[in-house]
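The protein record now logged underneath.
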Amino acid sequence: MIVTLTINPTIDRVISVDRLAFEDRAYINSNRESAGGRGINASCVIHSFGGQTLAVLICGGDAGKRLQEHLQHDGLPFQVVPVENEIRTNLTITDKHGLTVNLNAGGPTLSKVEVARVERAVKETLDRASWLMICGSTPPGVPPSFYGRLIAAARKKKVKTLLHADGEALRLGIEERPTLATPNQQEAERLLGRTLLTRTHYLEAAERMRKMGPESVVLSLGSRGAVGAFREGLYEALPPRVDAVCPIGAGDALSAAFTWAMERKNNEVEALRWGVAAGTASARLPGMNFATLEQTQEIYKQVELRRSE
């Protein structure tokens, strides 16, 4: 089973408009609400692909109740750790040309007791888990070392780990040697303290991050695909050109499909191809939607793999 952790879940409100233009009005075409957060998104993709998954998450307040209702409606297996404060609501505004504005709240403040409950809940799933995906931001009250502690605990149980985080949580987490780290370009730039502009920069960054602790690194580059730094070398996965309608969540689809593929005994290079296919296929869809396995397979056939010397 693939367990995901979302310690900072959200109600995602996605508003689609005719066009986004500075200092001009836009007309709303649709307005929808769904359960969100990187780990939840990853579980949704894995579940839709037919994989076994369990989403561990916190819930609090009226927004937390709505979150659980969305998850139940979607049929997603989940486990809730109750918290006192209300979980956040995020707002995404996107137009038909793919221009997107993403406004994220910080999240509820967690007490030390609540953080300990989350840690205990995750550790209790490890006996049933093959992978632990630790995804997303941490809300106030969660120490930056928290993700690293979970990675260490999973390693003792011989459970593979995927880390998708940012800032200090990413830096301290990769020092605990996760199986895989999947930062996007902006997260990698903040971690390394440099701007990444060229193909050479991407390749160097992926390999440099791998030397910081993880067994493997997949650097997500949006419409440019991804770079994988593995023990057997550096690989690029280049997607076909598509009309990106809403790229938000494509990185979550990439991480989920990679893990799903590894669970199906694919090697890392083929898993990278599946990940880029899922991210690309999802970016073609309006709003916060994820590609089906069939839609992903269509793109998978068009993803080019290239080994970099």
About this structure: The domain at 2-308 is CATH 3.40.1190.20 (UDP-N-acetylmuramoyl-L-alanine:D-glutamate ligase).
